[in-house]
Amino acid sequence: MSAAINPVPFNQAARRADFPLLSREVNGKPLVYFDNANTAQKPQRVIGTVDDFYRRHNANVSRSVHTLGEEATAAYEGTRDKLAQFINAPSREEVVFTSGTTNAINLVAYSYAQPRLKPGDTILVTQMEHHANIVPWQLVCERTGAKLKVAPITPEGELIVERFVELLTPDVKLAAVVHVSNVIGTVNPVAELARACKSRGIPLLVDGSQAAPHLAIDVQALGCDFYAITGHKMFGPTGTGALWAKREHLEAMPPFFGGGEMIRAVSFERTVFADPPHKFEAGTPNIAGFVGLGAAIDYIGEVGIDNIRKYESELLAYATDALRSVAGLRLFGQAREKAAVLSFLIDGVHAHDLATLLDQEGVAVRSGHHCAHPLMQFYGVPATARASLAFYNTRDEVDRFVAALEKVRRLLM
Amino acid sequence: MSAADLYRENVLAHNREPRNHGALDAHTHAADGANPLCGDALRFELRVADGHIAALRFSGESCAITIAAASMLSERVTGLDAAAIAALRAQFDALLRGDPCDRDALGELAAFGELVRYPARRQCAQLPWATLTAALNGAASATTEKDSP
Ligand SMILES: Cc1ncc(COP(=O)(O)O)c(C=O)c1O
Fold first, then answer.
1. Fewest beta carbons less than 10 Å away: which of A70, A120, A196, A372?
2. What's the average model confidence in pLDDT over B107-121?
């Protein structure tokens, strides 16, 4: 559904030009922005939409009958329709707006998991999770006496599916898996995992933060119960995101935050909550941000998610080959299904020195643990450098990045 | 390379061949420094006699800035007492902030004045100082990492 029905023509150079920031210089060199897994840049379409909202339509949502209020509400709620379509949700009411993935997962942790957990229960995660898909579970485990279990991965960075399935014992009350790893790019076989969970009656949450900007998402085909996304990685504004959940779960979940927007009637004796999704959306949301997110979804549709996937996998192959030519370079994560994320180290060179020196060449990469300490521990390194690519990046940028790496290596050796 | 100002030749040389590197037999004081988010880890072992540092060695895996700072520091503080080291550390912190300081007293360590332009990397050069101070004070561990994501 979210896949293009008619192939959309793809003009990469024109698409790159849609992103004003990409034409700036850093330290006197043309910027090479390879930190897309951290946050993506924004196309003019998104910037212009947010600007236009504040200039012409700004009002609070769901409260005012005046014209501006109705315009703001229509634009804001319009994003819910777009997002529902983008992930092929069966219904727009199953899309809860959050400030991002972190909030979405916490909502499930406190509203869904905590009331159901008791001592002896477990939550199953994988070795490659982001802290956002570990820490909320640990916090509810502490409160309930439940425990976390971890499904192992191979040295190539692939989930060992048989082990994951074996670990789905009756004590598991929820499984939580990243769709695409932010550190090593692995694309997990979510549909297969969801089938295994479903046949055992175990709900599955998928952290889709890194999937949304790179591949077509179809929550019905995936067969999961919860799907979390974050807007800023999919070319939208920061502070936007969503939790998709099956209606039955949303109906069973108590509200997490209380306040305005989420009620039907309030008296001091009793409050009647609004239906999902609004019962989870207390207070004035990031209205302009969500309107901008709608523009980002339109934009991705216009570029064509299949074009993005195809272009990026070619760029990944090119970049992987190019990095292999650098002496002493070690790549982390060589999954067969992989998004354009390259974590690496160079023998004898610390990741932070790499990042500082690359920045002097105008190349922005991330160094550190990438909010995934357990994965760093698995590889036995404190930190890596990470280049994460988007469809607006080019082979020429990969070449400049590799040339800068060589320069840095020579300097430090 | 314009980062040559920070990664200048003496910094690179200290990183390649750190002075006073390794373990110190019969040490009287020791501490472990770590910036876990960065992935810098460092151990200082010292022999203190009559309140003065008679010998000092360090080991660990860290970035070039931390290693070079530790190496230079190890040479600079040998023979000093705790009060002189504290005074020198205050000069070093002033240097990193870009405040007036006694560059002559800091000697080679003045190279890190370039960190004024790299706020995120200052904690790397400060880790050896914090670790040394911890060892002198009888503390087991030190960090210069602030709460950061
Ligand atoms: C895999 C993964 N999960 C979760 C998150 C958290 O997203 P956010 O910080 O937008 O809530 C990120 C982003 O850092 C991520 O890469």
1. A120
2. 92
Which ligand 1 atom is at minimum distance from the Cα of A99? 11
Beta carbons of A412 and B36 less than 8 Å apart: no
Instruction: Look up residue A401 and give its amino acid.
Output: F
Which residue is listed with tokens 């760093």?
A: A376
What ipTM does the predicted assembly reach? 0.84
Q: What's the rounded Cα separation, in Å, for the pair A81 and A93?
A: 9
Work out the angle at residue A97's Cα, subtended by the Cα atoms of residues A92 and A98, and round it to the nearest 5 degrees: 155
Q: Does domain B3-143 have CATH number 3.30.457.10?
A: no
Return the closest-CA partner of residue A388 out of A398, A400, A379: A398
Q: Tell me the β-bridge partners of A114.
A: none
Could you give all domains of chain A from N- to C-terminal order, each with its CATH number?
A: 12-41+304-412 (3.90.1150.10), 48-301 (3.40.640.10)
- How many Å apart are CA A350 and CA A52, to the nearest integer? 45
- Sorted by where each begins, the domain ranges of chain B are 3-143
- Which residues have CB under 6 Å of ligand 1? A 37, 100-102, 130, 132-133, 178, 182, 207, 209-210, 230, 232, 371
Tokens of B18: 């750190």
B22 φψ region: left (φ > 0), alpha (ψ -120 to 50), beta (else): left
pLDDT, tens digit (0-9, with 9 covering 90-100), for A254-299: 998 888 778 788 888 888 888 899 999 989 999 999 999 999 999 9
Its pTM stands at 0.92
DSSP A111: I
Q: How far is CA B39 from CA A286, A367, B143, B148, in A?
A: 35, 10, 11, 13
- For B48, the token pair is 């203190």
| CA of A306 relative to ligand 1 center, distance in Å | 23
CB contact (8 A) between residue A352 and residue B12: no
